[in-house]
Structure formats: C-alpha cells, structure tokens
Design a protein that fits this description.
With 261 residues, the protein is of the alpha/beta class. The chain contains 9 helices and 10 strands. It has a single domain, classed as Rossmann fold, CATH 3.40.50. A hairpin with a 2-residue loop joins strand 9 and strand 10. The protein starts with 10 loop residues before the first strand and ends in a 19-residue tail after the last helix. The protein binds adenosine-5'-triphosphate (ATP). The site of adenosine-5'-triphosphate has 11 residues, from strand 2 and helix 1. It is found in: Cell membrane.
Length: 261
Amino acid sequence: MNEVGAGVAAVRVQGLWKRFGEQIAVAGIDLELPAGRFIGLVGPNGAGKTTTLSMVTGLLRPDQGTVEVAGHDVWRDPVAVKARIGVLPEGLRLFERLSGRELLAYTGRLRGLPGDEVDKRATQLLDVLGLAGAQHKLVVDYSTGMRKKIGLAAALLHNPEVLFLDEPFEGVDPVSAQTIRGVLERYTASGATVVFSSHVMELVESLCDWVAVMAAGRIRAHGPLAEVRGDAPSLQQAFLELVGAHGHDAGADLDWLGGVR
Ligand SMILES: Nc1ncnc2c1ncn2[C@@H]1O[C@H](COP(=O)(O)OP(=O)(O)OP(=O)(O)O)[C@@H](O)[C@H]1O
C-alpha cells in the first residue's frame, strides 16, 4: 500500500491565498482531499482552479498558506512531493523535438527509473493509450488529443501516489476519452488519488466520487459527490445554484443577435 493510502490525506491545504495585482485569484482556501478517490475540482471560468492546482503542485508560490501532499509540505519538502505526484498541467509544454517514445524515455530517466523498466512501462502506456503507432513521430506533429495522452503517459510513468490533471479531456475525442478514463479508473482502484479540474459536469458526475466546487477564489462546497449534489437532479444543477448562476438570462441583452432580419 502506498503512503497516502494509510489514512494521510492526499492533499491538505490551509489558508491558501494568491493575488495577481488587484485580482485575488485564490482567497484563503482550506481543503482536505481524501486519498484513494477520484476527485473533481469544478468551477466557472476564472474561479481559481488552475491557480490552486499550480500552488498545490509546487509550480506557483502562494502568497500565504500551506499545502501538504501525501503528508509532505510542498514548499519545504519539494523533492519528496515531486517524487510522489504526477502532473498534467493546462497548456502543457512538451519537448517538441523528441518523439513520443523518446519523451517517455527522457521522463523516466529524470524520474530515476532504470532504463529497462522505463522501456517496459513506456511500451505498455503507449499501447494502452493508442499511441504505439505514433511513438516515433515527433511530439510537435502530435494532435491536441495525442499531446494530452503522451502528457498523461509521462505523468503516470513513475507510478505517482497522487495525479493532478488540469482539464485532461479538453480536445480529446470520445474514444480517447474512454481510454483515458479506463486508465484513470484502474489507477484509482489501486488506492492512488486523481485530482482533476473540469467544466464538464456530466464528466465529473460520471467519473468522480468526491468533488470540490470553487467560485471567485473560494471553495463553495466539498465532499462526496452525492452530498454536494444534495437534492438537485444533477451536479450541473447543484453547481449552478452554488455558483449563483441559476436562472441567469444569458441572452436577454443580445436582441440584435440572430439570422432573421
Ligand atoms: N498569471 C496571472 N496574472 C494575472 N492574473 C491571473 C494570472 N493567472 C490567473 N489570473 C487570474 O486569476 C483568476 C483565476 O484564474 P484561474 O486560471 O486560476 O481560473 P480557472 O478556474 O482555472 O479558470 P478557467 O476554468 O477559465 O481555466 C482569474 O481572474 C485570472 O484572470
């Protein structure tokens, strides 16, 4: 059993703040994400999801507050944390002049894995993710969905305890989405934790067993999916009520818009 499976929260955030000039992106959040769950971080555009995930994964320094991942402080003990996490960030930058296979080989060696183990895992991941045929193609020539998949393979290669994914299904076709979903479900079934951000409520509802709802830099609700959904007929409905968008007449002022003159 991995370390976080033994009762330590996968992520513990306390009093986390981030401001960009006048804009408060994250306004003092406290959050504890349980280990071994499939966790969705949802919120409208600009809610602070990416900023939060960046601070939790050690990519962006908070103005205030602490973050622990798998029991280790992200900013005091970054090496311990980075060894235990995998990250698929938004707007992922990859080494474009490497092939998919080379990218995994490089990532594996950076992670300190032995060469033959990297080869074995890379072959399996490329196969499962449907990238075997494109493994010798340069990453620069990959499509958006292929980039997400090779990024996911790189994030999983060292078998992290906690995997953070920012919008992992954006630009991914339904067949690939199903594949990614299968890989992630298998991964969480073994006791690992997935934390992913998304706007797509149906996806979050069908994948996650635990959700945190963010709006305007704050956590509006968090807990097991059924608890957050409450009496609402769907997570989408509960979400609209939580973020205060319920009943908003989106088209009222656009009376000029439409094809008929
Ligand atoms: N580097 C930055 N400089 C200035 N403002 C920023 C920066 N990064 C984020 N912000 C602001 O912080 C707020 C939160 O942004 P963030 O990207 O975290 O939201 P998000 O929930 O991930 O949104 P989306 O779903 O649209 O990706 C927004 O108002 C955004 O404009």
